[in-house]
Design a protein that fits this description.
Layout (H helix, E strand, L loop, with lengths): L2 E2 L16 E2 L11 H9 L13 H12 L4 H6 L6 H10 L1 H27 L6 H18 L1 H4 L18 H9 L16
Antiparallel strand pairs: 1-2
Helix pairs in contact: 1-2, 2-5, 4-5, 5-6
Length: 193
Amino acid sequence: MTERRHAAQPRGDASPPAEAVPETPAGFDPLDGFADELARLRAGEGAAAPWMAYDAAVAALICERIAEGASLRRICAVAGAPSATLVRRWLAETPEFRRRYARAREDQADTLADEILDEARGVRPDNAQAKRLLLDALKWRAGRLKPKLYGDRVDIGSAEDMDPDSLTDAQLLAIATGRRGDAAGPERDTTQP
């Protein structure tokens, strides 16, 4: 796994710079070009000035990168980016950013689900254990970001609450088999070897 190092730059509400930022395993890095885009956005305001005030264009760029799979920690480790503390302050103080950020996190779950498929296709006998760990972590994160679609538990309310067109295959399977919890498949007899 390759690593990139990012130069520390002074910024408002600075957090300690990350020592090393690991590359995305599949080769696609949602942060490619991010520093250049930040520099372009800040060209008119003096890039050495620390971030303080909310910037809608930078917030939109952050949301775009989160939706593409980057973590807030990695985004904020890029030279010239606002600190994670400042981004969280923007979230607390700006309803529009909070809404866009929440949507970006939901989109990130879909990106992680796609990454799970890509990584699963690359499993070989010599990397099976490492891939399993990665896939479990990606599934866990996707399930937390979008639990209704990628979560482990299928929670079905009353018939009045259901719109059949909005149900996932797992939810339809759970209804068809009469199960309310795990929708992974038909119940198995665990007493047989």
